[in-house]
Amino acid sequence: MKNKINNIGLALLSINCMAFILFKIQFLSLPYFWDESWVYTRAIYEMIEKGPSLLPGSINADLYTGHPLMFYFLSSLWMSVMGTDVTTAHIFPLILACILFIIVYLIVNKTTNEPILASFASIIVAWQPVTLAQSGMMLSEILLTIFTLLSLYFFLKKQTFWMVFFMSCLILTKEAGIVMCLTLSMFGFLEALKTKKTGIVLKSISIYSSPFIVGFLFYLIQKIRLGWFFYPRHTGWIDLSLNSIFDKMSWSLTFIFSRQGRIIFIAIIAIYILLLLFKKIKFNQDYKSIFTILSTFIIIYILFCSINFLSTRYLYSTIPAVIILIVIMCGSLFTKKNYYIIVMSLLCVFSFTMIPRSYKADISDVDLTYSSLVNVHSNMVKYCESKNLYNTHITTHFLMIEQLSHKTCGYLSGNEFSHVDASMDDDTKYLILSPVERDFNLDELNKKFNITLEKKFKSGVAWCEIYKVSKKAL
User: Which whole-number Å values give the CA distances from 70 to 51, 154, 204, 227, 232, in the listed order?
Assistant: First the structure.
């Protein structure tokens, strides 16, 4: 019977991964979007040219912006071997996403010994709109989450070598990796203190300090080679004012527990806590470790993000953590398999219903609306190429400037455009607008220029317009 249940769980996990890959195939050939287009992939292409490296300063610091280089290193290895085209590049985060689903399965199965419940957890993680978006981009968030959960998994299994290894990888992926390292170190050290044995305490200190030493060496070398520990522009974005911290905390909580249909998580948490308080259910002590670790991790992670510059995608590592807790809660609420299978199936169906809504949300890298903007920008670039505007002065916003000026963004089929910038002057021949970044005031511009709409592309909530521009006669 147990083998049959294991097989069902693995079958559901496999079907989930295959369905996810089939869904994502349509996005693989899309050009790069936002941060992946102008910093991440440009840094990766430079690392391909110079050779994969984890050492700070091995590529232009303005491209990797002082972040640890693990993602760039692994991405450049992948593309050096498999190919440097956009489709091949996007297969890498897709593979990472499937690895993430397997890790979620392993953690929930390790904790609950319920393979079917574990497979439901991986399904819910997979079909979150933010997962669907991030799994199609050359960004570091999914890799960061993988190392976060692998560190936790081997901590729970008490496999010290692999725990330290993945904690070190985590801290070399992005600064936020320090959060799970701190969380596990705190719990590991407290366990050692309980033994009241000096040898065990000292051993614990040496084990949990190792990843931090690895991270310190990276930043020390960065200081020696480049003159700073952290990228100067980023340190300027740290804001310790209470208003800023509360605003970011509020947005973080809203995104994690409310956006993209996750408000249902609040209801499950509330029901679980109420039933515990009224002693209608008993807390399973086997879950104590993972509950306390993940809850602590989520709290510290939100605090960490709240004092730094916050882009919504930075919160991704908390999403699988929350889902793991929610699924374990559901397993506790409905002890009979038939009941929790029904409830988890409903949760999965609810997750699927959020996908169409993700095409109608604000344009961002945490929703599928990103694909609509990429499509209209791609069509606009092709239009400019068809009109042979390579040396014509085009005024537009930052993203379109990058996409017209750099082949590495993945939009150009021919030469790079030579005269594209954000300044509107007498030499401007065309103006390109889309619903992102700089907002050009057409009413004001019409006072000085003759501006005529020449072509408009639209896809979902995204649009892109090109205007013919000439100076008005005095």
Answer: 13, 20, 26, 21, 20
Q: Which tokens sit at 348?
A: 């999965």
Predicted TM-score of the model (pTM) = 0.94
Give percent above pLDDT 70 in the chain.
98
Distance CA 403, CA 350 (A): 37
pLDDT recorded at residue 237: 79
User: What pLDDT is stored for residue 438 in this prediction?
Assistant: 66
Find out whether 350 and 261 touch, Cβ atoms under 8 Å: yes
Structure confidence by residue, pLDDT tens digits, 73-121:
999 999 999 999 999 999 999 999 999 999 999 999 999 988 988 999 9
Could you give the CA distance from residue 264 to residue 136 in angstroms, rounded to a whole number? 26
Q: What is the C-alpha separation between 33 and 435, in angstroms, rounded?
A: 14
| Residue-level pLDDT at 226 | 93
**Dihedrals φ, ψ of 178, to 5°?**
-65, -20
Q: Which value, to the nearest 10 degrees, does the dihedral of the CA atoms of residues 326, 330, 333, 334 take?
A: 180
Q: What is the mean pLDDT of residues 337-361?
A: 79
Q: Are the C-beta atoms of residues 369 and 358 closer than 8 Å to each other?
A: yes
Contacts of 355 (CB under 8 A, 6+ apart): 127, 129, 132, 368
CA 402 – CA 420 distance, rounded (Å):
9
Question: 189-222, pLDDT tens digit by residue?
Answer: 999 999 889 899 999 999 999 999 999 999 999 9
